[in-house]
Amino acid sequence: MVKVHYKRYHQLRRSQEVEFDQEKESLALVLFCGLILAPQFITSLSTFSLLYSFETEDEANTANVNASLCSSVPNGTICCDRISIRSDICIMKGDVRTQSASSSIFLHTSNNTNGEEDDGGEIQHETIRPYTRKWETSVMQTIDELNLISRNASFGVGHHCDVQHDVPAVFFSTGGYTGNVYHEFNDGILPLYITSEHLNKKVVLVILDYHDWWYTKYADVLSLLSDYPPVEFHGDNRSHCFPEAIVGLRIHDELTVDPSLMKGNKNIRDFRDLLDRAYRPRIRTVIQHEEHQVQLKMKEHKISIERAKEKQESKKPKLVIISRSGSRVITNQDSVVKMAQQIGFRVEVLKPKAKTELAKIYQVLNSSDVMIGVHGAAMTHFLFMRPGSVFIQVIPLGTSWPAETYYGEPAVKLGLRYIGYEILPTESSLYGEYDKDDLVLCNPSTVTQRGWEFTKKIYLDRQNVRLKLKRFGQRLVRAYEYSIESRNQNLKL
Predict the structure, then answer these.
(1) Distance of alpha carbon 322 from alpha carbon 326, whole angstroms
(2) CA-based nearest residue to 460, from 180, 78, 106
(3) What are the mean pLDDT values of the chain's consecutive 10-residue runs (493 residues total)?
(4) Which of 34, 140, 273, 368 has the lowest CB atom count within 10 Å?
């Protein structure tokens, strides 16, 4: 039996890319709580909910072996790789035909190696839900299930083509947690890149649980993964025929690409390059429009002075604050902005919404030197930052493990200089709700261990932060000095 365990949080090694300032603060926290925590409390880790990823011991130890499964599939056969705890993936090669009415994909073959088939000529029957959160039963039950059936070619049932394709197809779902930007990238776009990149755009994307808004939102990226219009599986009753079908998506880890598992050793920076190529044309259009508006105003002699000030400001390092609303808000954000300006930054506050065009968010962050944000799905946008820039993640109480696992560690892999700023209890709005010796403040891991509902209710939905300006300002000063140094080095190159 495969043993399943939660990935354990491990503090990233101190390096030029990662900074932690917690030795003194950890001691201060123990003293602040008015007790000495038992070792089991200090080392205990949150399990959170099944939303947080885990892996099998077998998977962790045999990743390279797993990567080779189904890598060589004979014509006329179905091969399914079900070893990963994250997702299943099946390969069908030969005469592949869709039948959306029955949620089926047929493989017509004369290659019956086992000699067994039923009265209808069925040789093999597999089922799969093509979504990358396989371990999460509740969400997987919402994903459309596909029947993959190999059938003797001599049986003519359903053996016709309405649309003949001469390239492979990748079948995947945009259901599940789609609507949350972290899941859209981690569970969808990145796995799609991992699965299809080696096909060099010669692939048809067949989408289950299709959403028009999702396709519109990611059309720029999808256009660099496929030269062909997508097929809405259940919205298109025609029979589509392919020489090969990849059903399901491969996923490596949180918001990353493992080069050891990719053809040509592609990595997360290559994915970011794809984002850059996807959004660059749109950004040029936006910039041209903005410059045209400026020229119109200059003709009216209204902004010559303002324009000169803007030119001077552009020489300063740019800091972007991802602003939240609802929970995990920086309640003294205005003071943080003022402090950053006094340090020498040009500051922009970005408030991304569900309908905010991704190209515009990319434009803002790609041109920034530093990004600041409180832990949450919007931190996924660190993917839009240039390698070498600074990412400061404000980590509220009770969120250390997911903050580092889902954003901190992936940011380092992208090449960002990452600073994880874990707040003190006195910087949390929970400080006013609980006694200073309460475990909610002193040892959040003992609370999060009780389950996802407690983590969500206490630490995610009800917590805001008020940053200690002197303490946080030390990080901003270091980020500023690093940004100036980086700019000077780039000028020398």
Answers:
(1) 13
(2) 180
(3) 32 39 44 41 35 41 50 90 96 96 93 60 93 96 97 70 97 97 98 97 97 96 98 96 98 96 96 97 76 62 57 83 96 98 98 91 96 97 98 98 97 98 98 95 95 93 98 97 89 61
(4) 34
Q: How many CB atoms lie within 10 A of CB 424?
A: 17
Contact 233, 145 (CB under 8 A): no
- DSSP-based three-state secondary structure for 150: strand
Residue carrying the six token digits 């954000």: 333
pLDDT at residue 14, rounded to an integer: 35
**Cα separation, 448 vs 46, whole angstroms:** 5
Q: Which two tokens stand for residue 187?
A: 């569970």
Please write down the HEC assignment for all residues of 190-245.
HHHHHHHHHHCCCCEEEEECCCHHHHHHHHHHHCCCCCCCCEEHHHCCCCEEEEEE
Alpha carbon of 197 to those of 165, 264, 406, 487: distances in Å?
A: 19, 10, 23, 33
Q: Which CATH number applies to 4-53+305-492: 1.10.3470, 3.40.50, 2.30.30, 1.10.150?
A: 3.40.50
The pTM for the full model equals 0.84
Chain Cα centroid distance, residue 371: 17
E strand or H helix that includes residue 374: strand 370-374
Buried b / exposed e over 66-84, threshold 16 CB at 10 Å, is bbebbeebeebbbbbbebb
H, E, C per residue of 88-131: CEEEEEEEEEEEHHHCEEEEEECCCCCCCCCCCCEEEEEEECCC
